[in-house]
Amino acid sequence: MTSSFNKRAVVFAYHNVGVRCLKVLLAGGVDVALVVTHQDSASENIWFESVVSVCELEGIPCITPDDARSPQLLAQVQAAQPDLIFSFYYRHMLPQAILDVAPAYNMHGSLLPRFRGRAPVNWAVLHGATEIGASLHEMTVKPDAGAIVAQQAVPILPDDTAFEVFGKVTVAAELALYNVLPTLLAGTAPRLPNDLDQGSYFGGRKPEDGRIDWSKPAHEVYNLHRAVAPPYPGAFTDIGARRYVIERARPWKGNTNGMPPGLAVVDNAIVGVCGDGRALLIHGLLADGERIAPAILQAQLAQSH
Q1: In DSSP terms, which residues pair with 248 in a beta bridge?
Q2: Residue 2 domain-assigned (yes or no)
Q3: pLDDT in tens, 185-199
Q4: Is the previous residue joined to 251 through a cis bond, with omega within 30 degrees of 0?
Q5: What residue numbers bound the domain in which 12 lies?
Q6: Domain co-membership, 12 together with 59
Q7: Which of 125, 44, 143 is nearest to 87 (CA)?
């Protein structure tokens, strides 16, 4: 990697992508004057790395404002006098006032213009995509709409969960930034069109979106499971007052013999029968956080009828 030309940057960062891309900037000799990140939420399963820890280790000033639109934050960004602004999986949209301070670039976890918006990895897995990646693009007030500076693709294998794909996207983001950083700092980086008419936009996802509709074909139910499998909240089904969450599953090659859609126990194995007569073989089924054995589930299913 070539000289950073003494560029100063303000970095908005969170999650694993935030950690890895921040490290790329530091390795490239960029003077990171300020990092803006989030306080971890007590209600969220924090399975990812900490941007705050990197800043503490590297001695970088780090703040966690609640409001990206606050005048105080704008003043702090302006005081840092950055040549560049980066956003790496920061969860708030940045207002025009901050974007006006310096050229700003965002790392998005898809191959733009596809899967713009929130939770791109989860949506890609849900829709059965076979490829995803990371895109560094110019920031505009409209999300994920600016010109593309760099992209790196990675495959989505048929049995990959969103968690596994996110690991690949993290590496893709690191590679995309690493490869383009010298030209970005020199002011000679490419600007590729981001044709929004050719892409797709998706909103955020909530835990309730993981509810299984067993009338759907097996491949759709399987993709839902893959998209929200732990450490995400998981695909679930309610029977009576009890909620069952699929921890691990695979498509089943056995015969459902006309069984109705829903959970069942066949030959001491848990299966989820789907609307097309196919099924998932469920290797891990959770209730109240505990794994349920086939015999226990069979007894619970008998009680519910």
Answers
A1: 284
A2: no
A3: 999 999 998 888 888
A4: no
A5: 8-202
A6: yes
A7: 143
